[in-house]
């Protein structure tokens, strides 16, 4: 009896180790990787009228505003950092700047940043994903007249050769994407994404209207296609 009890006491640590080791092996991993990178994008943004495109109080009532563009191509770059969870989810942060060149020296520049989450599946080296981003940013609108007839008269007959406004916004950004995993360890990938930024901001775009920045859908808005490269560590 004593020998049996002594043998059991000696085996208990080994049994406990085996059980602990088995638990570790079977426990699912939460964090399965991380990655980040830069991407270029090309898009098309539009508004229903030139007045909505520029949202500039100093242009109201001017005849030439109807001849201004209400859409255009926008180009830019940015980057993102993300964690891979459960080998099926990305959670991270991102930031981008996108510029739409217009006639002459006029332009509309949009900068935004925030968080995102997406779900993905992996089939070999192909990884489709579907996600949603949320955050905030600003639209900077620069109008420079292209002729003397378009010179802006602000008030008291004071002429200006340019007009600049900013609009703060909150955004929701749905997107779809595709990654092509590269290298023997699949630690690099070619990243493709198509999104549609939906910004909500102040009606006029004046800095003094910043307290209304969360009430109205603003333009220009439209789809963008991103192409970039990701680097990181991923689960085999």
Structural key phrases:
236 residues; mainly beta; 8-stranded antiparallel β-barrel; two-stranded antiparallel sheet; 54% strand; elongated
Topology:
Blueprint: H1 2-26, E1 31-46, H2 50-54, E2 71-85, E3 89-101, E4 107-120, E5 126-143, E6 152-153, E7 159-160, E8 163-182, E9 188-196, E10 198-201, E11 216-217, E12 223-234
Antiparallel strand pairs: 1-2, 1-12, 2-3, 3-4, 4-5, 5-8, 6-7, 8-9, 8-10, 9-12, 10-11
What can you see in these coordinates?
By secondary structure, this protein is mostly beta strands. The chain has two helices and twelve strands. An eight-stranded antiparallel beta barrel has the order 1-2-3-4-5-8-9-12. Mean pLDDT is 82; it is low at 4-12 and 17-23.
Helix content class:
10-25%
Radius of gyration (CA) equals 27 Å
Order of helices and strands: HEHEEEEEEEEEEE
**Main pleated-sheet profile:** 8 strands, antiparallel, barrel
Given helix and strand content, the structural type is: mainly beta
Main-sheet strand order equals: 1-2-3-4-5-8-9-12
Overall geometry comes to elongated
Low-confidence stretches: 4-12, 17-23
Quaternary state of this entry equals: single chain
Number of strands: 12
Overall average pLDDT: 82
Q: Count the helices. How many?
A: 2
Give the terminus-to-terminus CA distance: 51 Å
Approximate strand percentage: over 45%
Quick synopsis:
The chain is mainly beta. The chain contains two helices and twelve strands; from the N terminus they run H-E-H-E-E-E-E-E-E-E-E-E-E-E.
């Amino acid at each position: 009896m004593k020998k049996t009890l002594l043998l059991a006491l000696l085996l208990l640590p080994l049994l406990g180790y085996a059980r602990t080791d088995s638990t570790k092996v079977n426990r699912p991993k939460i964090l399965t990787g991380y990655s980040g990178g830069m991407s270029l994008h090309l898009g098309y943004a539009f508004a229903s009228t030139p007045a909505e495109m520029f949202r500039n109080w100093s242009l109201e009532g001017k005849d030439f505003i109807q001849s201004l563009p209400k859409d255009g191509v926008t180009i830019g770059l940015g980057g993102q950092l993300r964690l891979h969870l459960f080998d099926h989810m990305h959670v991270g942060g991102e930031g981008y700047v996108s510029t739409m060149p217009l006639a002459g020296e006029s332009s509309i520049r949009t900068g935004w940043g925030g968080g995102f989450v997406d779900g993905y599946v992996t089939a070999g080296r192909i990884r489709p994903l579907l996600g949603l981003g949320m955050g905030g940013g600003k639209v900077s609108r620069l109008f420079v007249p292209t002729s003397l007839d378009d010179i802006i008269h602000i008030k008291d007959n004071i002429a200006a050769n340019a007009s600049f406004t900013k609009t703060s916004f909150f955004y929701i950004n749905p997107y779809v994407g595709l990654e092509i995993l590269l290298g023997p360890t699949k630690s690099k990938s070619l990243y493709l994404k198509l999104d549609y930024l939906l910004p909500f901001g102040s009606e006029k775009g004046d800095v003094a209207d910043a307290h209304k920045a969360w009430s109205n859908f603003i333009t220009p808005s439209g789809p963008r296609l991103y192409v970039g490269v990701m680097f990181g560590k991923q689960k085999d």
